[in-house]
Every structure is written in C-alpha cells, then in structure tokens.
C-alpha cells in the first residue's frame, strides 16, 4: 500500500448492507408510524385485513397507497384508485433507470432488488459522483420495506381498537409526518 500524499485522496470505505440499515433507521421509525396509519385507514376504507398488507409488500409506495385508500374510502372505484396509485408511482421510472447500473445479477435478482428502490433508499444511496451505492440502497430498502409492512400489519390488526381513525387525527398523520421529515431540509440549504 502506498502512503497517502496530498495528490491522493483516501479511498472511501466500502459500505455494507448493515450501513444502509443504520442510516435508514431513523426513517424506519417514521415508516412504521406511516404504515400503522395506512393500515388503520385502509381498514376503515373497507380494504379488509389482507389487501393492505399485500399492497404494502407489492406496491411499497406510501403516497400511492394512501391515495388508493382515500379514494376507496370516499366511495371511488377500484379503477380510479389504481390509476391514481400508478400515476403517483410513475416517478419510480426515472429513479429506477438511474439505479439500473447499480443492480447486479440475473434479471430476477435485479427485479427483486428494484422493489427496494423508494425515495428514501435512493436518496441514502447517492454518492458524490452521482452513482448509487448498492449496499446502502439494498440495506436501507430492506429496512424500510420491513418497517412499512410491519406498521401496516399492526394498523390493520390493531385498527379495530380505534373506533374512528379521524378522531385520533390519523387522516392528518401522513402529511404531518412528511412535513416533520422535510422541515429540516427546508430550514437548511
């Protein structure tokens, strides 16, 4: 190994999946809270017990899921709810394209890994040179998927304990938690 000189910047440390989990842990707490809120609201919208959990695993897009549950809860049709969810998740097209060179392995492994790309895991995985760190992406994405799905299941199954979700302010939980996450970014450059 050569000694470092002023002309040679130190090599960045190799990241692990656990690093992605650690970085995403604070966001994971919010994901659990969002998930609980979604589970309660999905049940009150008449989505049953299984559909919200399956939706959380397969869609894994909070804004799309809240929109679909809100539309169904207001008496809208399934087609309208699905179209709204798809439109909200269209942003994952460009995000997925930017992450495509990061994904490794056979097509089925890349497809499964792509399921872990959400706004938060993508942002965590950003490097200074514009590339994504695969280990941070996967570690953060796995933690967020587990937190979101667990929160949804808790909300779905404990939702019966809440007589009226709106009386607890759960209808405002998603915007309030989003604002709490964004506020530090707005205050600082």
Give a verbal description of the structure.
The protein is mostly helical and 189 residues long. The chain is built from 9 helices and no strands.
Q: Can you describe this structure in just a few lines?
A:
This protein has helices at residues 17-44, 50-58, 62-73, 78-89, 92-99, 107-114, 119-124, 134-158, 173-187. It is built from nine helices and no strands.
Strand and helix layout:
Blueprint lengths: L16 H28 L5 H9 L3 H12 L4 H12 L2 H8 L7 H8 L4 H6 L9 H25 L14 H15 L2
- How much is the average pLDDT? 85
Structural class: mainly alpha
H/E element sequence:
HHHHHHHHH
State the total count of DSSP E strands. 0
Compute the number of helices: 9
Strand percentage lies at under 5%
Largest sheet: none
Structure keywords:
mainly alpha; globular; 189 residues; single chain; 0% strand; 9 helices
